[in-house]
Amino acid sequence: ILYYIFTPFTLLVRQVLNFAAKKYDIVKNLSLLNKHEILVLLEETEYDRNIDPEKRSMIHSIFELGETEVHEIMIPRTDMVCVEENTSLKELTKIIKDKGHTRIPLYRQKVDNILGIIHAKDLLPYLINEKGKQVKLSDLARPAYFVPESKKLYQLLREFQQQKSHMAIVVDEYGGTAGLITLEDVIEEIVGDIQDEYDQEAPLYRKLSENVYLVDAKIDLHELNELLNIELPTEGGFESLAGFILSLIGYLPKEKEVVTWHGYTFTIEKVVRNRIIRVKMQIPSTEVQEQEQKENISAKAEKVD
User: What does the alpha-carbon distance between residue 71 and residue 74 come to, in Å, rounded to a whole number?
Assistant: First the structure.
């Protein structure tokens, strides 16, 4: 499964590095570059508009899997959805329906004592044949896979492949349950949030006040322009609002940092690792936009003269 997941990323890395190598006349065999040399090469292309800032950020994220530990991205114990072994099949079915999870940890008496993982599809024969009253959840639970909080994400990915597992229970130094982590959580560290049919998709923007909006940074610029009747540029090697902001400043901004462009004000509200997640955007008033357009027309006319 990891082959199919990471093949596009491998091709992406090679595509960007080949472009950079040609531009900066690097003749060294790219296959011999180490991690540090690759990251330096990426920094050399930081201001190049021919390389999508989001793709560059994704490559950084791939390398950071070797530095990031499980506890940094796990679902904490307090947010875990688990069931006690004496839960009825009817109750479990309702939890699966309400929460939208297909894998749920099963425990005995307390969450520190995980018995295994219940897979929703394993319940189907009992629901269809109405044998639910006869089944013990502990008999249906598949073995749980346990990992320490300090495990690196790249190691976890390899172990997910070897174990043919999509979920791991994270344990602390005392053997207690600290949280859980899924294959999807790790992949999202590279590509961002993955929406499935059970996820409640948050709105891409929300109006806060006149001309002020809270915007999901991954929104497509064409869509944003159409929704808000504005004219942010859509050419330059970027597709999203995050990519546009990165192209303006050339580095990953910090939270609460303010970026301005032609009367627009972008306040970075949330950053997770190498990604801008949420931006508060103040757009100029209609009068300011009209004045800006007049100045642009005048500037073009002067160039023609």
Answer: 5
CATH number of 123's domain: 3.10.580.10
State how far the alpha carbon of 249 is from the alpha carbons of 12, 62, 228, 275, in Å.
23, 22, 23, 14
Tell whether 182 and 233 lie within a shared domain: no
pTM here is: 0.54
d(Cα 221, Cα 225) in Å, to the nearest integer? 6
What is the C-alpha to C-alpha distance for residues 64 and 51, in angstroms, rounded to an integer? Answer: 20
Query: Domain range spanning residue 243?
Result: 205-290
Instruction: Assess whether 77 and 128 both reside in one domain.
Output: yes
Query: How far apart, in whole angstroms, are the C-alpha atoms of residue 9 and residue 5?
Result: 8
**Cβ contacts of residue 35 below 8 Å, gap of 6+?**
63, 66
Tokens read off for 115: 């018995």
Q: Which of 227, 224, 229 is nearest to 290 (CA)?
A: 229
Contact present, 160 and 184 (Cβ < 8 Å)? no
Dist CA 95 CA 284 (whole Å): 47
Q: Which residue has the tokens 């502990």?
A: 138
Question: Rounded CA gap, 249 and 65, in Å?
Answer: 25
**Structure tokens of 294?**
């007049």
Residue pLDDT, tens place only, 264-291: 999 999 887 678 989 999 999 865 555 5
Place of tokens 């610029």: 221
Q: What is the pLDDT of residues 94-141, one digit of tens each?
A: 999 888 889 999 999 999 999 999 999 998 888 877 655 678 899 999
> CA gyration radius for the chain?
24
Token couple for 290: 């009209």
Structure tokens at 16: 């960007």
CA dist., res. 124 & res. 120, Å (int): 7
Q: Does residue 140 form part of some domain?
A: yes
CB 281 within 8 A of CB 264: yes
The answer as to whether 298 is a domain residue is no
